[in-house]
Amino acid sequence: MDSKRRMIKKIVQQLGNRLIDAKEQANETVLHIDKKDLPEICQYLYQEQGARLFTMVGNDERQINTMFALYYVFVVDEIRHFMTIKIFVEENDPTFPSLAAHMPAFNWYEREVNDLLGLRAIGHPNRIPLIFHGDQMEAVYPLRKDYIETGMLHFENEALHFVEYTGADVTEIPVGPIHAGIIEPGHFRFGAVGDTVLHLDARLFYTHRGIEKELEGKTLEQAMFLIERICCVCNVSHAVAFAQAVETAANVTIPRRAAYIRTLYMELERLYNHVGDVGNICAGYGFAVGNSQGARMRELLLRLNEELTGHRYLRGVIALGGVRQDIRKDEIDRITNHLNELDTDFQDLADILLNHEIAVDRMETTGRLSLKQVTELEAVGVAARASGRDIDCRRDLPYAAYDQLNFAVIVQEEGDVLARIKVRILEVFNSILLIRQILQDLPEGDIVTDIPKIQPYKTSLGWTESARGENCHWLMVDQDNKIYRYRIRSAAYSNWPVVAVAVPGNIVPDFPLINKSFELCYSCCDR
Amino acid sequence: MFDMLRKIWQVGTVTEKQPFEPAPKKYRGKIELTAQKNTNWEECIAACPTGALCMNVNKIRLFYGNCIQCGNCVKICNTDALTQTTDCYQAVNAKKDLFISVDKDEEK
Known about the structure:
By secondary structure, chain A is of the alpha+beta class. Chain A has helices at residues 2-15, 38-48, 62-65, 106-117, 211-215, 220-228, 235-250, 256-283, 288-309, 329-354, 357-363, 371-376, 381-386, 393-396, 417-441, 491-502, 511-518, 523-526, and strands at residues 19-25, 28-33, 52-61, 67-76, 81-89, 95-97, 120-122, 135-136, 155-156, 170-175, 187-193, 196-203, 318-319, 322-323, 459-465, 470-477, 483-489. Chain B has a single domain (24-103), classed as Alpha-Beta Plaits (2-Layer Sandwich).
């Protein structure tokens, strides 16, 4: 605790008289500074204090204090503390200094704020629209509070935002947004010389549904149902992240039994995702046995979920202040038996896959990412751990019951498709061990606690480690206890920029394999 | 190679033929709506997060197109007017078949 105080004090001292206001709350320090000091202070935190970017939120606070606000949330893992830099941006000068040139991770965040709030990042190297496909005909910014929905927005210059190739030997290959398999929409444009990819442009946000806007003005109970539906395969981790944000804001501790059951559901979610993903990767090089065995095991896990909770993808199990569904004694035995079967069953699949020469040959050295690349682009989850970036917020920023459980964080160094698969395989066995621990020490008691009224305009954070990486939710409620602004930064949002970096240098037929090895979700990135 | 063949042999055929077994007991399926006197309709309607359940003059209407089967209305209901089944086959031919309604004060 002492080192934490010292470090915060040191950072505050470093800021000196540039600090306008500092506020302490829960595990977060909010430092309000002037926008002209932003680049220097962010770089100080980033480079000298080892802070990493957690999320960035743009908020229309004109009703509260006549200005827009930007929150840059950094986390310092070693002291488990969030440092939030807050700046105000005036309405008649909607600009702020860009950081993307020095810290590439800011690229998407700054473009998103430009699209949805109309705040321009001055000095951004490539400020093309991110969420909108094309340039806006007239300025309409959906996340501003005075936005009136008018139906379709009109755009022009839709196709101009791709890299143009001048050489005669470069072939442009457009793929998508409609794909051959039943996957989500995304447009990829390869510049290929022969068989080798030179450059990849990815255009996403086809499934942007405006969930953040839709959540504004909803009660917390209503919002839970929408947040569970951000994406189909991370239901529990999104719901828990939201519940934690609300509980932090309301200053509530959930009962121990609820924390354990939440952890159980999160691990069940990770388990079916990872088992399915290991099977899915085999489809990337036409290895039918692995693919169908993975699909079979995943289906059995989904049926287990349905039996336990009534929903195959575990919706409707998390409540604000606890969980909705308890676990009975006979269900504990049911899970234990299933895991015993899965353990050997999945070991067989892993052995088949990792001893298959052709399979290993396709995966080795494919889609390689270096530690430098994942660190600079702030990749999270499996993609980061496979390249040697040792982050896992179950261990670094423990939530639910993770601080009472023993588990190892799996890190590989190579950063290729094989390393990512190995991380997943080992995490499956890790999850099985975790679930066994949870079922063994499951405490008795209540499963839900009441949430009091939240102090208006207080901000809070909630985070979880989903099967893809960390999800971060940022919450602000208004005086009626309804959502004022909600920001969802999912693991896919952090990891998509890395995919475009991993592909160049590989052959075109390896793209589906590389893409599958990240197993990113389009809809929780697009929101 | 042999471990692969052994696995295929051990697992055998896993695909299933219809009709499937009924959904597990906990499955939250189609909500049934029946007319019952003295039901706390206002509270049930307020509990619905998507507005699928609503009141129109003195008719209670349920639109399955908006219902997400969360079961909030069933939990809050003080009579048996709203019940949750484990029925998962809900496809219909026309959108109008997704609307059902009952009279507020009628007994069936």
